[in-house]
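2024-03-11 09:14:02 INFO receiving multi-entity request
2024-03-11 09:14:02 INFO entity count = two
2024-03-11 09:14:03 INFO echoing inputs for audit
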Amino acid sequence: MLKGIAASRGIGIGSICVIVEHELKYESKKITDIDAEKARFQAAVDSFKEETAAMAEDIRKRIGPKEAEILEGHLVMISDPTMSGEMSKMIDAGQCAESAVEAVCDMFIGMFSKMDDDMMRQRASDISDIKVSLLKLLLGIKDIDISSVAPGTILVAKDLTPSMTSQINKSNVAGIITEVGGKTSHSAILARALEIPAVLSVPDVTTLVKDKDTAIVDGTEGIIYINPEGDVLSQYIIKREEYIKKQAELKNFLGKPTVTADGENVELFCNIGTPKDAKKAVECDGEGIGLFRSEFLFMEGGHLPTEDEQFTAYKEAAETMNGKPVIIRTLDIGGDKDIPYLGMKKEENPFLGYRAVRYCLGNKDTYITQLRAMVRASAFGKIKIMIPLVTCVDEIRAVKELVSEIKKDFDANGINYDKDIEVGCMIETPSASLIADFLAKEADFFSIGTNDLTQYTMSVDRGNADVAYLYSTFQPSVLRSIKHIIECGRKAGIPVGMCGEAAADPLMIPLLIAFGLTEYSVNPVLVLTARCIISKWSKKEADELAEKIMNLTTESEIVAALKEAAKE
Amino acid sequence: MVSQKVTVTNEQGMHMRPASLFCQTMTPFSSDVKIVFNGTSFDAKSVMMLMSACIKCGSEIEIQCDGPDEADALKKAVELVEAGLGD
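2024-03-11 09:21:47 INFO inference complete, emitting structure
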């Protein structure tokens, strides 16, 4: 078994075809017939443009315009006056076309690879692709035609160039393994778009395998097996069938409302960290944003984000969601999240200290800037303000007071905003849970944060391995707390969501249905899975299970009973 | 020669797409178009040179145009940057 990066989910089983890297060797000789050399160079550039344009068109049609952009970028670069101009100049000076191409490309590769910007460094690999393609054209080297490999082929390569990926078909390529590349590399994006399982960054894999070896590519776990033992192979054949069946089943839930087996509607939202993630939420069929962590704005850039910077980010998320709710959590720092430039003091007990809403109310200028940006952005969608780590009623009152002053100021200055912008709180401390009935009178909505709620209820630092065994959302005390919070919210007539990991847990979902949770907020990739599980439980069945569970006295009994009742 | 300072506001800065749009728009002008950033001057009709400048969102750049249609070229260039370079 070899490990790599899980870049595209699914299981592929098949026969290996290693894509050999050609040695691009040539003798750099002094050119005498410069016109002929230039014609040879121009012919290579013309073929490159023609082939690249055809591949870009093919990718655009088969995969999408975004994926084709990389190849279109290659066309722009090769057509650039500096690029081809410098190459021509070198040929004029008597260098052969190969060394002109190599020298100019290497110069740009050197320049781009040193930049402190990920996207710019990516350009270095684009130029490297251009270099290799041009040299192959000049040297008359032909790659194997990937589009004609036998069905059930597992491709193994050092890296997949865009020209290789454009030839990949789902009908004959069963899996992809490479030595380099990460989750966001070109190969990974294309593999996911084509739904071909892929494991990338497996060290030295091209030298460890040979053609016709049998391989298993587990793109979900990021592992591969070369010439696996019989029982591993048979297990994986079953696993692959289950995966394919599951995927087909999940696809049926795309574009459908989230309803329980007896037809009760609930909301299924997504947790995101940046405004860009909102696009992912839309792609994954999320019905809103249940938790937009605003910390990224404060982590990046090394300075306090201005009102305009924050406004732009919130507005982008609101517009992407196109009128669907976007619940933004106000700055949640302290505890384990430090922002160096704020110069926060080191604390003995950071989780019990100056964090989240406590810090914000103690640094009102910073907080007002953030709240103003949120209220301004509410003119562009359905933004809701969520306060983290509330422990007493005074805190939510103080925040609401700040919001109402901002509204007055906006009214006086003619700034647009949503007059009904909601302010809710996270319920993630035992104190907030115990006074949830009081808080429900002040808040427009609740959202249960299961990670902190579990940690505080169980008094356990989950980073401490000696006590981590106590950290479980299925502890009876935590379940009672969750049930109580949801009941208090329902009695007061406000929606209650959950934005911790538990909201997508197949074991937790029936209990949440029984307690009456109205909004589930999950990682975008789990939307369909959660929708599928919710659809399998009726309120009646969930109630029966919950009644039994809430009478069990230990975590292990509870988990065992939930596992037994689970519906796959 | 005419010149003007302007701040790049599109989120990506001078990446592939914004840079190629800028070059494509400026190439038809017969004037020389240069971008001065961090004290270095870059040929604004070359995507490669523009990208190599590593101009990010929030950077202030100076656009210089020199030639028979310099005023029109500058006006167009400034408009383009202010409009977010097509992002």
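2024-03-11 09:21:48 INFO post-check: The interface with chain B takes residues 69, 73, 76-77, 80-83, 108, 111-112, 115-117, 119-120, 123 of chain A (CB under 8 Å).
2024-03-11 09:21:48 INFO post-check: Chain A has 23 helices and 16 strands.
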